[in-house]
Amino acid sequence: MSNKTIPSGLGATPESFGSLGLKQDGIEAREDGFRTGGAVGTYEWWYFDSHMDDGTNLVIVFYTKRMMLPGKPLTPYATIDLDTADGKHFEERVEIADIPFAASKDSCDVKIGDCYIKGDLHKYEIRFKNDVVEAKATLTANVPPWRPKTGHILFGERDEQYFAWLPSVPEGSVTAEITLGGKTTAHKGTGYHDHNWGNTLMTKLMHHWYWGRAKIGDYQIIASYITGEKKYGYKTYPIFMLAKNGKIIADDGAKLIYTQEEPYFEETTGKTVYNRLVYDYRDNGEGFRVIFSRKKSLINFKMIDQLKGVVKLAAKAIGFSGAYHRFFGDVTVERFENGDLKESVTGQAIWELMYFGKNILS
Q1: pTM of the predicted model over 0.85
Q2: What is the pLDDT of residue 339?
């Protein structure tokens, strides 16, 4: 058996843009449309999250199929995670065998039963509805759509495998109505929408990733650090975007230094987690430092516990130990000029750790 490291990397060359049919100088609405067609071996989802002024957190996601089962036919479902301002937590799902499903290839227009997300890279309407909760939200972009280069991390000798990511709305204003127990409440806040898809089971490509987004004062942030699987040499793919008042001012991952601090062992999942994530972006003496400081964990679960039947048995047989974590805490943005700290602003945000591989310390 060969121990040769398989090549991988962010698609960034003119050839990559050409082969993927993407423009280097703009993003088209079709990129937020149905990209995979639900083909066997693929997966796809559209994600929306929001943090309201009163402390309410709302996350709604639309899936074409289970991420762990890309080889299966279309099995669309929608989920909602709701944390209310008074500390209540709700997790609900709409998934019915013959539920109506439709998705446009031309733009984001996805419908799963009574749930939908639709928009044009600037304004989106999102709805989740079941017997427990109904949430209707409008997201209006404050930052233009963005992607790191092509938005595709390419794996293999011929770039034949990929994981794709489009932050369609890096940050926007949200208004929402949430109905629980017959009572409807109105909310305002900040939100985010992205779109992900791929053609290979993620556990075969990526070992783990941290991802977070935040609006801190005048700054809007997307920060992610992805680590490839062992056969790709645990290669890392840094992704970073910083905007100020809606204008992108830093987004070159090659200028980023990432560090993890204050490790602890999460007993629920058996993973090493870090309390502080530091994204240090420097460019000829100018630069920024973004620090994510965990205050508490919102979600910790083993992914195998979400599986059922023969799929769960198969996952156990191969020793699958994937886990998901969602954190809440402070995010600080520091601005430097000629190496000197000139500005520091702190706010609150939510971020995640998706951990597919065996536990390692870094």
Answers
A1: yes
A2: 86
